[in-house]
Design goal:
8 copies of one chain form a homooctamer.
Chain A: E1 13-15, E2 20-22, H1 25-29, E3 35-36, H2 42-55, E4 61-64, H3 68-77, E5 82-84, E6 89-92, E7 101-106, H4 112-124, E8 128-132, H5 140-144, H6 147-152, E9 155-160, H7 166-173, E10 178-182, H8 194-201, E11 208-210, H9 216-229
Parallel strand pairs in A: 3-4, 7-8, 7-9, 9-10, 10-11
Antiparallel strand pairs in A: 1-2, 4-6, 5-6
Helix pairs in contact in A: 2-3, 4-9
GO molecular function, one term (chains A, B, C, D, E, F, G, H): hydrolase activity
InterPro entries (chains A, B, C, D, E, F, G, H): P2CMN_synthase_LarB, PurE_dom
Domain PurE (chains A, B, C, D, E, F, G, H): 100-232
Chain lengths: 238, 238, 238, 238, 238, 238, 238, 238
């Protein structure tokens, strides 16, 4: 009695029964749809990746938030796919010419999964990536030591949990567009990442924007779109 | 008994007693410091604008969140300043050559002050601005009718209160980097803009980033930095 | 020492020991009581369905929120029951003549369980159902493509998680009464469906009402009551 | 420096400079746009009412959330308008033939403004209205005494602050579709209406839907749409 | 390296190593200490019950929030103990002469564990108990049918989850002191019992007081203290 | 266009147009209705007090939450009324024979208005009152010095803001039924009394129940009902 | 009818009618009581300061949170008092020999009132004070430039609003005990200082403790107690 | 495709691949880095402890929040390590000369793990520790009986869950600097320790500072830094 009547074919939609892919998205926005793995079975993930790859043979296609089971299914069924167990992603195909650079900066070791998801996403969406880890504000010499690399990027992704202070420090050092990603790392009054989220939204450094808690994917899409449009740089922005 | 001992002159700091301007910021980040008017007296706003203008004669300098009294004081003391009563801003000096375009898109008439602050900020920070107002999602023909202008921008600022749905709709139409600004427009369960903020953070459109509630200034800085770095475009992003 | 003294028979109450069925509800409100499966054992679900069916032989009776174990117990004990593993419901008996049409509209594939519960409930409570899935606002062509079906319904149920923007878009397209159901689909700052709930309560489209997070059942009851009272329609509302 | 470039005329939009009216809404949804008075000047309210009235001469047009100043301006400029200081509304024109009945039920005297806004809205949107006041659950004989009138309505609007229990009691008495409106009446842990809102969303009576805190307007639109579509009734719903 | 130095014997304290019983409490407040089972091992529960029983041989001693393992250990080690698997309590010894009557009223079947804990506690603390179940407000005839029993009690405990409306209805029917217990029964916007808690704190019926979510124990202590002090009643309170 | 049709006379209801008094309440619950002054005009307060006094000539009738204007109007129109500017109450008539004793205990001087409302209410509802002020837990000698008076009461009302710790300390000293009233005294993370409310709900002392923030009235009703039923005491409770 | 019976003299208490001073506190804790000005009349503030000064002639006594009216009344009545309009404090008498040093570090100019209250309090409670202002993390050179002064203190008070990141940065630079004070400076998602409070509680720098929002007084007491006990230092802590 | 490019050696950083130790911290702040065990594998914990021990052979090094598996791995691999299963810590090496005394005071037996973590941390960071358990405010004689030990300490750590009232009581008894640790002990409206946290932040006792929920480590670091700097004491603080 699930009452799912025929809907007939619709232009710009590929119907797999359990999902209706938006095949018009590449034309409309410049980027193909992505497989969001949460709540999908391993075999659905495999079929969706295959379908997207067949529809967009010239691009890399991406699946995120994969369970260990889904990662194993992809590895078994799609030997060309690159699976990252840290970021819980799979990529099929090559992203083409990369343009511009996204620097992914992470405060602590526990933020690694979110940073890896952001890095992989930014590359699939067409940008070079420079990853800088474990530069928490409690040891400022670590972030001050990478100031050059921060300044050389076209867009920054700054990942931090707990109090989420790193974007304010980085945003005060350089004038590069900065997307902050709060993570759910912490306990007690971190309230699942809320403390870091509020901290980043209230950053005293101008030019900081924020995405959802643990949303490395969203930050990666955003930063790649900024980076790949950027004009080649000499030095300091005008 | 306020115990404010001498601190002596520090490089990169201009001390006015009630405030210590970060005069190194232009060198460090490419943008001068800004006068945040909240909690400052009219005469402090005037003196700070004058000081910043004297320090950075070749740029436009900006004051935000001005009370009516502060706006009147600026108009009286600084006849060259451009004061906007809607966005509650004042600008002194010219921003130089503008590069790239920021489109500021607002959902309703009540969002006008935040949109105006964002637009003025983006121009002071070096980008052309295209303002598109009153395109709420309850009348989709209005936003669909401006799709070309959205697609032509280098960065989008989308301003909305209440449920904050406009960024999801715009973000699904074009692939331009999009900064969403939730506003405190609404009542009851909008909880001062919280509903719009949460909506935007959870947007199902990829590539949406968010700033604080009513933070038109922050969105303007961010979007201008993206736009002015952008390479000139032909058509659709690759 | 549980001190549960006899309460004696009460009119309009059928006492099963662990539950006291409100057998007067059909007479009072036009609809029989329903088995809410959460926290009940499989055998209690079976016995309650049987008892309700015996009391109301001319209607369909419904059980919701069934565990897999309860679904299996119902299938084994009541071969005439229709069990839906997606919506986690079981139905025993036939709903009689259906009047009016409820359209159930879901934003994403993850919203399917809530949409299925709403659809089954609306049918048990006496309305025809039209299900429209995967029409999220990030691909507007999908919802614009079904405008006719939306307009033809007597009541709409719109199901969405994450930012919950779909009711605002649908509510701006047609003037049909619209019940919105926020779902707990999302992560981080969705706070278990709170973001979608607040978004829907603040919808800028007039005439949107809301039920609890994941409450497909409540929306189904409400929409069926609206639809089955509706006068037959020609076209556009007067 | 507000940068508001020409947008040119757009079909379905009437541009007044400070607002762009959605003149296509009547055609699209069956109901004209409404003047939301919050944040508008008295003269803007007058002009918007006049414009809407001129565009839709055969309907009643409505303005809500009017300040005392706006109410006085409307009375002075539009002698045909009916202004209600309790509900803070103004109506210009006649709603045409009313169909179906909406019963507006309010728990306490402090809920009167929200109930009045709901009643006026429902009538402007085309339904007969029956108002029942001061029937709080702490004196059950009052609500039990009006059971007949509740049952005779095609849609119920139930308005309550504090703990918001009235919809559960009414929803258990009759099977009429019920829209609950939480109000901000209360103090302390009512948190501006949050307690009533949560109570109504969790109602144990099936078929209760909810609108935003103090949103009498939204409930009125919704209920009128339900009532005016209803088939004429004999007795008890089938 | 846990550094737990000797503290030496203290009057009014019985030291078991892992806990220091307040043996002075009976003298000070009229009631002995109770074993709060959460976080304690089965053998600790057994030893604590034995110790309390030995210290207070003339009273009943109580353990609450027992796991299934702890219940089994008590049953095995203390054959005289009465274990209630619904309320998760164990009682050792007899409470002596009971005075006054506490009526425990529960809205739904899912509230049974909290109601059982309250009933057992009230009896251990010295009051007669009358339990009335499944009288939710969506079927008012059930609660109206027990008005006599409500009025005959010396103190009422009213247990409800979801919207928590029952205390308002009961508190409007009789003038008996009423302690309300919100339960965590519900989902979505019940937020673990918060909706019921806020509803009860904002009750429009005068004379309703509230305890923590699911705190049947606290309500039982409070109500027994009220009931056992009450003068014998004839009819209606003066 | 307020649509307030005649409702006809209803038994147990006295209709004043702007309010419908529950004149059956005294018969039903043992206590007359009370004038809640918030949101009422001074002349309404006067008329309501007069009406209640005429209906219940043998009792004291109470008005709470009176503005300064309403207090002055009562003093002018009803010379027999006793007006308390601290507790913002007015009382007309005499409460009859007082039975039992309520002790009102307040933590700090800022809690005085809530304590005064509680004390006046308890007396109007028929109990003797003993007020003990300024016994905050940061100076324990103050509360320890009044232990005898606490123990002599039949019910305690404990009023505290900030962290709300006083009920836990008092509840550990004596076994008298204790109603805690959190107040909105505090700032910052007191969140308008939320901190005190949560503290009291989580009290480690058994037998503490709680009313809404600043709800001295509710505590007074509850405590008077407990006290006036109490049997005369010798010493320690059994 | 305020029922405030005589309480008789109590040792360690000085009764002024509207307040009962804890005159034993100096003996018990080493520090005299303080006048918390919020909610007190100007004449009460003057009398309380005089009384405390008379009781403790050898110490400085402090009043905080004074309105402008109270500040003027103190200046007029107590010419020896030192009134600070920024920190809203008044001090009467001399604090005696100061021991140890408290450094008060403030992020922005808007934090000045809280910093001034903390500085004055620390001095009244017996410590030398070094104030360092406007060293927000968005311009790190400012805080790095004062590292020596931070390291020389015996206790640090770090005051910041918005995201509250400064304590994490300072706490990573030096090992001095650090008390963080969140301020209500900010807007939107700062939620009255909640963002800064949560940020500080989740600081990744070890050894950061936190007081209530805007609680400069509490931080001053705490830090002075730490500083005045400290042994004289040579260099780096062992 | 994790893109983790070489970062090259950086001074003050020891790179283990999965973590980059801040080896400069001891020089900078006086204390070595600590192993935060949450989210780390047992073998990582072992290697990190070994590495820290090798870098700082003259100190004790600490690991916190160890799973049972990590505790077993440490015991097996590092026989010199002292593992505490209650506080879930491991210590390798000796802390050197201890200076000053930290008293750790816990309200209930369920707070033992947090108290043990605080005690172990304080000792590793160089202070003597005195542990006082089970002195909840519901039995005041227990805390009054240890007043001498409280007064003899150089810094107090007060650990409590539920309403978190103990710091207010202790802070009113003695003038020793006091760090409060809220714990997640409790249920219902304790909201995972939020009630205790808010209670402690709003303490009416001056000089109370607070750390994150369950953060025994942070309190231990802070208190040890205070205690080890303290001058030797005779009696009462000056």
């Amino acid at each position: 009695m699930t009452h799912l009547p025929d809907q007939g074919p619709q232009p710009g939609v590929h119907d797999l029964g359990y999902a209706r892919l938006d095949t018009d998205r590449l034309e409309r926005t410049g980027d193909a749809e992505v497989v969001y793995g949460a709540g999908k079975t391993p075999s659905q993930v495999v079929e969706l990746l295959q379908t997207l790859h067949a529809t967009h043979p010239g691009s890399a296609v991406l699946a995120t938030r994969l369970t260990v089971e889904a990662q194993e299914a992809v590895t078994a069924a799609l030997p060309d796919a690159v699976v990252d167990p840290v970021g819980r992603t799979a990529v099929l195909g090559e992203p083409g010419v990369l343009r511009g650079t996204v620097a992914v900066v992470a405060a602590g070791t526990s933020d690694a999964p979110v940073a890896a998801e952001a890095a992989t996403t930014a590359r699939v969406f067409g940008a070079e990536v420079d990853v800088i880890t474990d530069v928490g504000v409690a040891g400022l010499h670590r972030v001050l030591g990478v100031r050059e690399r921060l300044d050389a990027a076209d867009c920054l992704i700054v990942v931090a949990g707990m109090e989420g202070a790193l974007p304010s420090v980085v945003g005060g050092l350089v004038g590069v567009p900065l997307v902050a990603v709060p993570t759910s790392v912490g306990y007690g009054a971190s309230f699942g990442g809320l403390a870091a989220l509020l901290g980043m939204l209230n950053s005293c450094a101008p030019g900081v924007s924020v995405v959802n808690i643990d949303n490395g994917f969203g930050a990666g899409v955003f930063a790649a779109r900024v980076a790949r449009r950027s004009a080649p740089r000499e030095r300091k922005d005008a």
